[in-house]
Amino acid sequence: MSIRTDVREGVATVTLERPEKLNALDLDDARELTATWRAFRADPEVRAAVVTGSGPKAFCTGIDRAAAVGGEIVQPPSPYAIEDPLLSIGPKANDLWIPVLAAVEGMACGGAFYLLSEAEFLIASEEAVFFDPHTTYGMVSAYEAIGMAQRMPFGEVARMALMGTAERISARRAYETGLVSEVTPVGGALEAALRCAAVLASYPPEAVQGTVRALWAAKEAVRAQAMAQAPQLIALGNLPPERQGELFTGRASRAGAGTPRVR
């Protein structure tokens, strides 16, 4: 299994364990994450959680392209429906209301935002970078951009979603724009997140979970309305699956996308 869970003193650490794939998720991983969050709902001993990636190179790089392009995900013919296995990998999608923190080392891109957008707050090391490659590959950034629009200023989300692989957001810039709440030295994100989670786990769980639920209630109506439009936008705007792996190297190199700019 590629999802490792460790519970100590009320805090669960959920680790994506595919460092050789930059912690990209295949379909089994997606199902296991769903099962993990649902199991926490029934476990009173778990009062807070931290989600992180294995190794220093990446938190998560989204869906494994072998699963997406290799035919494992079959899309319905209707533009009003979309088959997206990552829609259910986050804690809120599974009605889990314990606080969940994200500890980010290295790259966090694309489908990683399904997890990051459902965490209460993010802690990142100083070498972490955030970017969204969808448009570069001829794909619509819908669910990812909607999730990030709940956490970042509109212009910052628009720039990240539209610029694709040509630009990456540094941990420092993510902190300045409110996406990240704390920047640590390299290798320190998980320790800092666990320290915060231990504090949350020590408080009365009813009060903590009620506060989490109240925070999400403040924005869930707008989020739900936006998410409802995503399937048809994706169906209309995505290239056919067999073409989504194309990098458009000639066009990208002319635009200077060969060496992503970090800001």
Write a concise synopsis of the structure shown:
The protein has 263 residues and is an alpha/beta fold.
Description:
This protein is α/β, with parallel strands linked by helices and 263 residues long. The protein contains ten helices and eleven strands. Helix 4 packs antiparallel against helix 5. It is globular, with a radius of gyration of 18 Å. This is Enoyl-CoA hydratase/isomerase family protein.
Keywords:
alpha/beta; 2-enoyl-CoA Hydratase, Chain A, domain 1; 6-stranded mixed beta sheet; 5-stranded mixed beta sheet; 38% helix; ClpP/crotonase-like_dom_sf; Enoyl-CoA hydratase/isomerase family protein; Enoyl-CoA_hydra/iso
SSE map:
Elements: E1 3-8, E2 11-16, H1 27-41, E3 48-53, E4 58-60, H2 65-69, E5 100-104, E6 107-109, H3 112-116, E7 121-125, E8 129-131, H4 143-149, H5 154-163, E9 167-170, H6 171-176, E10 182-184, H7 189-202, H8 205-217, H9 220-237, H10 249-254, E11 261-262
Parallel strand pairs: 2-3, 3-5, 4-6, 5-7, 6-8, 7-10, 9-11
Antiparallel strand pairs: 1-2, 8-9
Helix pairs in contact: 4-5
Pfam family, one: ECH_1
InterPro entries: ClpP/crotonase-like_dom_sf, Enoyl-CoA_hydra/iso
Protein name: Enoyl-CoA hydratase/isomerase family protein
Number of strands: 11
Mean pLDDT score = 89
| Count of the separate structural domains | 1
User: How much helix is in the residues?
Assistant: 25-40%
Structural class: alpha/beta
Give the spatial strand order of the biggest sheet.
Answer: 1-2-3-5-7-10
Which term fits the overall shape?
globular
Measured by DSSP, the beta-strand proportion falls in: 15-25%
Q: Which regions are unreliable across 5 or more consecutive residues at pLDDT < 50? A: 249-257
CATH homologous superfamily title: 2-enoyl-CoA Hydratase, Chain A, domain 1
Total DSSP helices: 10
Per CATH, the architecture is Alpha-Beta Complex
State the major sheet: 6 strands, mixed
CATH class: Alpha Beta
CATH topology: 2-enoyl-CoA Hydratase, Chain A, domain 1
- SSE succession: EEHEEHEEHEEHHEHEHHHHE
**Between the first and last Cα atoms, what is the distance in angstroms?**
36 Å
**Gyration radius, to the nearest Å?**
18 Å
Pfam families: ECH_1
InterPro entries: ClpP/crotonase-like_dom_sf, Enoyl-CoA_hydra/iso
Organism: Streptomyces albiaxialis
Protein name: Enoyl-CoA hydratase/isomerase family protein
